[in-house]
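Input record (one chain):
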Amino acid sequence: MVKVSRSGYYKWLNHTPNEQEKENAWLMKKIQEIFKQAGGIYGYRRIRMVIQRKYGKRYNLKRIRRLMILLGLKSFIRRSNRYSTKTSYVNIEENILNREFTADKPNQKWVTDITHLKYSLNHKAYLSVIKDLYDGSIVAYKVGYYNDNELVMETIKAALKANPDVTPLLHSDRGSQYTSKEYRLVTTKAGMTRSMSRVGNCIDNAPVESFFGHFKSESYDLKRYKSFEELVANIDRYIQFYNEERYQEKLNSLAPLEYRYQTVA
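The corresponding structure, as predicted from the sequence alone:
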């Protein structure tokens, strides 16, 4: 029935696994556990980091990838949403950041932007974030019903409250909120240096676009939201996970806030 020879069956039945086979069996079990716990968003690179941190074992990336293929495990992939904000041509600043996406210390360079989301029957919501380029952490975020100045100002105020007396460079696109008089007044009062992307160059603000991509593919796109409150709760959970548990190779396999606190200590 199963098209297996008698000799082949008994060879399999009496087979004693060697050390590599035993190790692979253990590793496959752990890969399945980690993949399930992460809700299917971890790829082979991040799974290797978790195994290394949790069990102190180092494995080749190709081995982890091969075993994931055997298990039929595939993480979610980010896709472009082809969405852009309305650009204003008042109070425009130079691109001082100039794609220098690294920082020597916390609160030296921040990047900010807004992305649109949906809940219920096609109702819209907007997520505004500020990301620190030193460790990639989200230092502040706000969710609102409207893509307006108030949403941006509340985000800046939250970032300054969490990090008093800092004067970072703050990079944004040329959206109307960021070229408004209010934005100019608030950032000037806080002693910030403003920087803005060039027209049609979304790569000028790539780090915050990258965060939105991860959020959508790893959390937002995986379910539907019946209410604004349910959407906000999901955002709260993801940003906490992103800051405290999402390990990154470029941060020595640490989560953003782990890396930040390690530096402060």
